[in-house]
């Protein structure tokens, strides 16, 4: 019988803080205080400090030379740089994995796409983001390159944070429409067309972020 192993306290704190940062519950610039977080989350200082270190690696928390910690601020410049990095990693993984996709993979991608759309419909940004990320993960893992997926995992939370910032904009539509069209091409056996369309998602996303998300 299969079951889900409960996360460690550190993993649970990482997940909680990551979710709060991605959704904006902890806004950019928020001062992070170990003792206050530990008291609020009902854990000791140690898992909080370990979680902060992990989220610093992910780029969600800045640690200053004087050891003060703040939620990382998002500027147009670093958002566009992040999208460029994510595009290189995810598109390479998708291209490497597409030839190995089976009917089972496509069924899973279709299911994640439905969950993505449903999450958006119900306003559950976290669920939508997780399902949308899984859509790409299925193809990337099909490449057999788990090191690449590990690199994608390091930047995906920050990408979801940008999407959450644009929850009322057309940013999500770029992904939902793009995923639908990628699936249609894959199901027709047009792998090269699917790769091209997948790359276009990132190009369109970058354009929207550059032209609209940070406009005063």
Automatic annotation (TrEMBL):
Signal peptide: none annotated. Residues 7-74 form the HTH gntR-type domain. Pfam families: FCD, GntR. GO terms for molecular function: DNA binding; DNA-binding transcription factor activity. Keywords: DNA-binding, Transcription, Transcription regulation. Gene3D superfamilies: GntR ligand-binding domain-like, Winged helix-like DNA-binding domain superfamily/Winged helix DNA-binding domain. It comes from the Bacteria. InterPro entries: GntR_C (IPR011711), TF_FadR/GntR_C (IPR008920), Tscrpt_reg_HTH_GntR (IPR000524), WH-like_DNA-bd_sf (IPR036388), WH_DNA-bd_sf (IPR036390). PANTHER family: GLUCONATE OPERON TRANSCRIPTIONAL REPRESSOR, TRANSCRIPTIONAL REGULATOR, GNTR FAMILY. This is GntR family transcriptional regulator. It comes from Pseudosporangium ferrugineum.
